[in-house]
Amino acid sequence: MQDARYTPNPLRPYYKPASIGVADISSNATTGASKPTSGATFSFPDLDYSDYISDAAPSLNLSIKSIIDQTVWKYTSVVFAQPFEVAKLILQARVAQESDGDRPKRQSRNVEQEEEAVSAYDYDNSSDDEPNYFSSSAPYERPLSSGSPDRGRRGRPPRSEPSPLHRDRQQASDGYLSLKNPHSLMDVLSTLSSNSGALAMWRATNSTFVYNILIRTLETFFRSFLAAVLGISESEVLLPLSSGSIPDTSILSSPSPISTVLIATAAAAMSALVLAPIDAARTRLILTPSSQEPRTLLGTLRTLPTSYLIPSHLIPITFLTSTLPTLLSASTPVVLKTYLGLDPAMNPASWSVATFASSTLDLAIKFPLETVLRRAQIATWTAPNQLLPTSSSKRKAVTTIVPVPQSYRGILPMIWTIINDEGYSESEKDKAAALLGKAPRRKRKGQGVQGLYKGWRVGFWGLVGVWGTSFIGGIQSGSEAASNAGVHGGKF
Predict the structure, then answer these.
(1) Angstrom distance (rounded) from CA 179 to CA 103
(2) SS3 4
């Protein structure tokens, strides 16, 4: 029996009915040749959707290849950035010394003293210790009143204690870094490579890669979890809130941007607290010499006094370091759009300048907190008995490649110590007066506020690069949109 829809109508011979709709399969089946069906199907025989939906699902090989490509790309980015991260972390954790500014003079003075000692020794030995072979045939007798020092093994004078230059060389052989400029990233990298080899600049690369992968995965998981608990759509909270160092505008498309910002901040805090042991282990691997065991991530985690859990003294500083920058970067587009009336499409130049100022403020808040965090993390191993006085077993402090804090009393006390107690600071006015000879050189106790921003060039130049790219792209897109609008306006 033929379907009535496909039977030609004598009154409408040229009409062809639409083929999209519900087709009764049971009416088209022949008796005894078809299987029993329980309804109708909706068919699209004449609709071409190949441009929108692929006919075949991606194969397993393509999926594996995509995962491998993303992993290689992320690991490569970590490898390129790791030397600068190592140098920044060393500068942040290093305790300033009183003699940092006088180190070049002291080293030259030590070299001069060493050369004078060697020349004096050579002169004394060449005066009256050698026999005169051209005088008489009498056997040589050593004079009793010789002023030469007592000879040790193989004719060399014994040394009671090593000289300062010899001590510096011995420390350098053990991996200890003697920095000429304690504020220079390149000086840290050159000293580290000369003392421990070029591969020392890539310390804890695998740990950094694992930490970066896990922090992104846990943030996505916690966002989805909090969205499900609070009854918010996952499409609102899974927006990429930041692109590099510049806040992303995708949060403006969210129906509830305030909820999205709060959920993102809470997810960042929870992820940082869970992964705080890995971050602390990464700091230990960077700041300890290669001879300090263990050198693996799992082995370092076993040395934690709390057994794979975050130590209690790291909870406040880890919470602040993760929440404040995330809250600022995530809420910046909302504040600019709501309160300042800036639109990224209509005002691309003003939007780029405003986001750059916001990102600079983000770095200004982040770097002091990071400095305190690194010192609190390494104090877990350098002052274990002071941080855990109730522990029954006494732990031995580890050896570090730079001077680090031997105690940690909290966030504000550490900031106060850096500004007012560590090292010394000298104003530009005093430096100019000392160079001109108008006044003696004056040193003030403490590093000042600049002691909290060691290694700031890494973050700042990265911010400038990302912002410059986005700024040029925003101006080009805005000019193209304006030109297109002018062309269409001229046509109509």
Answers:
(1) 8
(2) helix
User: Which of 191, 87, 93, 187 lies closest to 451 in space, CA to CA?
Assistant: 93
**Dist. CA 409–CA 316, nearest whole Å:** 12
Q: In this predicted structure, what is the pLDDT of residue 477?
A: 58
Question: Residue 83: how many CA atoms within 13 Å on its side-chain side?
Answer: 16
Question: Residue 175 contacts by C-beta under 8 Å, 6 or more apart in sequence?
Answer: 195, 196, 289, 290, 291, 401
Residue 294 CA to residue 328 CA, distance in Å, equals: 38
Give the three-class secondary structure for 242.
Answer: strand
List the one residue out of 331, 354, 326, 327 whose CA is nearest residue 474: 354
Domain ranges within the chain, ordered by starting residue: 203-472
- Per-residue model confidence as pLDDT tens digits over 26-63: 444 444 444 444 445 555 555 666 666 665 666 788 88
- Beta carbons of 380 and 311 less than 8 angstroms apart: yes
Per-residue pLDDT of 167-206, as tens digits, reads 444 444 456 888 888 888 888 999 998 888 888 899 999 9
CA-nearest of 406, 401, 409, 402 to 384 is 406
Question: Which pair of structure tokens corresponds to residue 423?
Answer: 């090292």
Amino acid in position 235 = S
Q: DSSP assignment, residue 307? A: S
- For residue 53, the 8-state DSSP code is S
- Sequence-separated (6 or more) residues with CB below 8 Å from residue 39: none
CB atoms within 10 A of CB 273: 17
Give the separation between CA 288 and CA 377, rounded to whole angstroms. 13
Q: Which of 481, 359, 485 is nearest to 351 (CA)?
A: 359
